Amino acid sequence: MAGIERFNIYTQIHKGLRACMCEVLVRVGRVDPTDRMEIEVVAKEVRGLIDFARDHLQHEEELIHPVLEARRAGSSRESHSEHGQHLETLDLIESSLRILERSPSEERPAAALRLYRQLALFVAENFEHMQIEETENHAALVSCYSEEEVFDLHARVVAAVKPSAMAVAMRWMIPASSAPERAAILGGMQKSAPGPVFAGILGLVRPYLEPRDWGKLSAAIGALPQDGILGPELAAQQRDALAA
User: Fold this and answer.
1) CA–CA separation, 182 vs 221, rounded Å?
2) On the CB side of 7, how many CA atoms lie within 13 Å of its CA?
3) What's the CA gap between 66 and 68, in Å, rounded?
4) Tens digit of pLDDT for each residue in 174-206?
5) Model pTM?
């Protein structure tokens, strides 16, 4: 019988990253290069993905890799090298995005296709990269550290995320998670986070959850707004929390 897998520090955030990458890639692929407004919307989404990915790479480099190297030298070497490549690719994508925004109408179709293909390769490379982290890096981490130490590391990573970046992570991670994972994450927040912050997160993720998912979440962690709409007081708390 297979044993129960130890807590994996990579799994949930990677689900959010995969969801974001897939959705933004599809959006870039179907953008109408003759429509300036569509290009503006897509450009904002691409930049959101770029920021999300850069923040994630920074947290792994500054917080997770040193912990791995402290007890197993070389265990993060491959991931570190690939992170450097990913940052270079993100710079290239950002450059191609600017070219698309500035191109005359006759050049925009080619510019849009170039951006789409670069982003597709980035997504493909990241899917393989995240698989290695979730298996090999995870195995190294849990072989060298106790469950309590891994949870402590996870807490340090979460604490290092800025509120604006946390809002982005939750927007993608919560809808991409399974119902039990969603309940565990939000149930933990419900117990530890200030009420306005928790209300803010609920308001942020609610538009991306199906009614059935919202019902499961309510059953798991306690009564939530029946129609999924926050009242005026919670809505005000949400705005204040996300602006913090």
Assistant:
1) 10
2) 15
3) 5
4) 999 999 999 999 999 998 888 888 888 999 999
5) 0.89
Domain-wise residue ranges, the chain: 1-161, 178-244
Token pair for 115 = 């951006």
Tell me the C-alpha distance between 205 and 218, whole Å. Answer: 13
Q: Which CATH superfamily is domain 1-161 in?
A: nmb1532 protein domain like (1.20.120.520)
In this model, does residue 63 exceed pLDDT 90? yes
Do 119 and 24 form a contact (C-beta atoms < 8 A)?
A: yes
pLDDT in tens, 153-182: 999 999 999 999 999 999 999 999 999 999
Q: How many residues make up the chain in this entry?
A: 244
Q: Which residues contact 95 (CB under 8 A, 6 or more apart)?
A: none
String of DSSP letters for 176-208:
HS-HHHHHHHHHHHHHHS-HHHHHHHHHHHGGG
Supply 14's token pair. Answer: 């990677």
Cβ partners under 8 Å of residue 76, min gap 6: 64, 65, 68, 69, 137
CA dist., res. 217 & res. 212, Å (int): 9
Region of 228 (left: φ > 0; alpha: ψ -120 to 50; beta: rest) is: left
